[in-house]
Each structure stands twice: as structure tokens, then as C-alpha cells.
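@channel anyone free to eyeball this complex?
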Amino acid sequence: MVLELYLDLLSQPCRAIYIFAKKNNIPFQMHTVELRKGEHLSNAFAQVNPMKKVPAMMDSGLALCESVAILLYLAHKYKAPDYWYPLHLQARARVDECLAWQHVGLRRSCVRALWHKVMFPVFLGEQIPPELLAATLAELDANLQVLEDKFLQDKDFLAGPHISLADLVAVTELVQPVGGGCPVFEGRPRLATWYQRVEAAVGKDLFREAHEVILKVKDCPPADLVTKQKLMPRVLTMIQ
Ligand code: GTX
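replying in thread with the prediction:
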């Protein structure tokens, strides 16, 4: 039975999984679940992930959600090269540390920046109060500082000398504000170089392919009223 991945490449955790699977030649069938159409709210998708979020995975009867759990499952099952998720206890702990922080730190501010700068005004036709946008960008800035000072330091990659899952989950977050026009790397040459290093390690073509949708999100047509009403309650919980 082929591994099935339920993804929308608009979503950061989906892109991390997509890149990881492609880069490691993991065969999979992709089911695109279009968030902007509310396809994740269907009853059919709830059978795969009752939380109605992407990414989700189905493999030999195992339905799994949460991107980190899926990435770890794939790394173990397909015996991905050790640097992605090292066996060495302390090296692995560094990756775990970054994966855990990314979810509550960097991710929160990147999702908010995407919604406040792009999705609300362009897709939902709603304006965000300037002070809220300023607070979101300040929070993003503080998290970028943590990423640079605590995690990257003077290393080539976030958890050591090689690319790991930590780099993948972080870099895919940062493409959103970059695509949305936030000055993420302004005054941060170390982070900018790291970003290029990760892009090169993944491969420029695969990196571009995974990010095509998000980089064009500013050109997306606005949601119709029915879709907007369907999405709004969940969007508000996602970004509050
Ligand atoms: N902790 C989960 C993981 O890591 O897998 C988080 C998954 C998640 O937040 N999924 C979002 C979702 O399905 C998509 S990622 C944010 C995308 C922003 C752009 C969307 C147009 N959300 C749908 C929902 O909650 O209704």
C-alpha cells in the first residue's frame, strides 16, 4: 500500500514534509487538500484527520497528523540519512529542542505575519489594525533573534554542521513572510546565509517547486462570501 500524504503546499508544515519525502526519494501519493476552498473541513477529510488540519498521513492503516510526528515517522521508516535526525543522543537533543521551540515560537509569529500581511487583506478582504500588524512583526523579529542567537549561532545549520529536520521546519516558515514582503533578513546576514545554505542543501529546484504556491499567494483571487464564512471561525483561532 502506498504512503498517502494529505497536503496543501500553502501550509508550512506540509512543505517541510513534501521536501523531506521528495529529497529522500520516499514514494508517496499526494492528495491536495485545498485550505482556501475549505476542503479540510469536509467529512471525508475528517476520517483522515478529525482535527481537520493538514498535513496528515495514511500508511498501512496508520492515520497520523502533526507534522513533526509525520517527519519522524518517515525518517525512521525510510531510514533517512542520519544527519536529518541523528542517532547520537546529544545531537538528536539539539534537533528536538529546535523542533519543539519552532512550534510555539517561530511558527506562531510566521503564521500571524502571513495572515495579517497577506491573507486577511488579499484573500479575505479584511484590513488589520496597524497596531496589531506592528505587534505581529515585533514578535516575529524577537523570534528571529532567538533563531539566530540561540539556535544558529556560528554554525552552518541550526543543530550542527549538517542539515537536519530542524532546518527544514524553520526555513519553510520563513518563506511565508519573505513571500509576503516582510524584511525577514534585513540586518541579519547570518540568517540570510543560512537560508541560502538550506536551499542549496535541499536543491534549488525542489525548494522552488515546494514554495511555488506560497510565493504566488499575493496574486490569489479573494474568497467568495460562503467560503469566507466557512473559514473565518477557524482562521481566527489559528491566529489569535
Ligand atoms: N501542529 C500542526 C502540525 O504541525 O501539523 C499544525 C497544522 C496546521 O496548523 N495546519 C494548518 C491547517 O490545516 C495549515 S498551516 C497554516 C496555513 C496558513 C495558510 C492557510 C490559507 N489549518 C486549517 C484549520 O485549522 O482550519
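from a first look: Strands lie at 3-7, 28-32, 56-59, 62-65.
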